[in-house]
Design a protein that fits this description.
This protein is an alpha+beta fold. The chain has one domain: 3-Layer(aba) Sandwich (Aminopeptidase). Helices cover 31% and strands 32% of the residues. Strands 1-2-3-4-5-7-6 form a seven-stranded mixed β-sheet, with helices on both faces. The radius of gyration is 15 Å and the shape is globular. The N and C termini lie close together (9 Å). The structure holds coenzyme A (COA). The site of coenzyme A (COA) has 17 residues, from β4, α3 and α4.
């Protein structure tokens, strides 16, 4: 992977909003939503972009409160899938979660998104529940996954192996 990870800023939003549409389609977040997220950095949010030669190839975000984290978004430009960018972003977000002292990290992922689920399982996430109709406007169901950041070897042993 040649992309470099760095914090996301408002100056990145033109590219990120475009990427968001390519990756998430009708479920994509608006610019306004993303601005609202960035406004909460660093207190309760941590957003990263993966930059490749001046172009943003991927991004991801972590939300945290009360010792718990949530991977709120993770997206890689379709033409860049399989290069390890998603793994690198997830590794960095989980590293930050650990630095912030979170003991567990949750995420939601569409039940039909096998590729993303494979990535999360490789990092040690396990299924903890189902949220019916979670995604709008599609009404698709979300699988809720959890990773414990306490205990020996937990916390993304797979992450370390891949990055
Ligand atoms: C899910 C997603 C973030 C994964 O990103 P990615 O950059 O393709 O992820 P990686 O490259 O780290 O890993 C994905 C696959 O590529 C393989 N891979 C990674 N680096 C590789 C490399 N250098 N050479 C060959 N294969 C590689 C991995 O083994 C993995 O394979 P698998 O899924 O078959 O097990 C991306 O597909 C995406 O944006 N999807 C749409 C949005 C989405 O679903 N987001 C998550 C839901 S919230």
């Amino acid at each position: 992977m040649t992309a470099v990870l760095r914090p996301m800023t408002r100056a990145d939003l033109d590219q990120v909003v475009g990427l968001e549409r390519d990756v998430f389609g009708e479920e994509s977040w608006s610019r306004q939503m993303l601005e609202g997220e960035l406004d909460q950095q660093p207190a309760s949010r941590y957003y990263l972009v993966a930059e490749d030669d001046g172009r943003i190839a991927g991004y991801g975000g972590l939300l945290g409160a009360g010792g718990q984290g949530d991977i709120v978004t993770l997206g890689v430009a379709p033409g860049d899938w399989g290069r390890g960018i998603g793994s690198a972003l997830l590794t960095a977000l989980l590293g930050e979660a650990r630095r912030r002292g979170y003991t567990e990290v949750f995420l939601e992922v569409r039940t039909d998104n096998d590729r993303a689920q494979r990535l999360y399982r490789r990092f040690g996430f396990t299924d903890v529940g189902l949220r019916r109709g979670y995604y709008q406007p599609s009404g698709a169901d979300a699988l809720v996954m959890r990773l414990s950041l306490t205990g020996a070897g937990g916390a993304g042993a797979g992450a370390a192996a891949r990055s």
